[in-house]
Amino acid sequence: MVDIPKESKAAVLEEYNQPLKIRRFPVPEVEPGGMLVRIEIAGICGTDVHQWRGNLGFKPTLPVIPGHETVGES
Ligand SMILES: [Zn+2]
Q1: Distance between Cα 18 and ligand 1 center (Å)
Q2: CA–CA separation, 56 vs 48, rounded Å?
Q3: Helix (H, G, I), strand (E, B), or coil: what is residue 10?
Q4: Which residue of 16, 21, 34, 72 pairs with 54 in a disulfide if CB–CB is 3.0 to 4.6 A?
Q5: Global pTM?
Q6: Paired sense of beta strands 7-12 and 21-26, if any
Q7: Distance, CA of 64 to CA of 23 (rounded, Å)
Q8: Cα(48) to centroid of ligand 1, in Å?
Q9: Nearest Cα to 50, choosing from 58, 39, 42, 38?
């Protein structure tokens, strides 16, 4: 059995065109059929840059945790 930490960290977009803030979040319960992945690295792509600038075509409600290209271990 793996020891699951209670908290994790994420780089959070809180204001457009400002540095991301490192924030702590509780690790959620894993729902049946779900998977908990420990992210080792995350890439930054053009979509993330446009989102950071606020010119993605839509403006999501902030704060947002960017990053959708990740590598991790389950
Ligand atoms: Zn991408």
Answers
A1: 20
A2: 9
A3: strand
A4: 16
A5: 0.81
A6: antiparallel
A7: 11
A8: 7
A9: 58
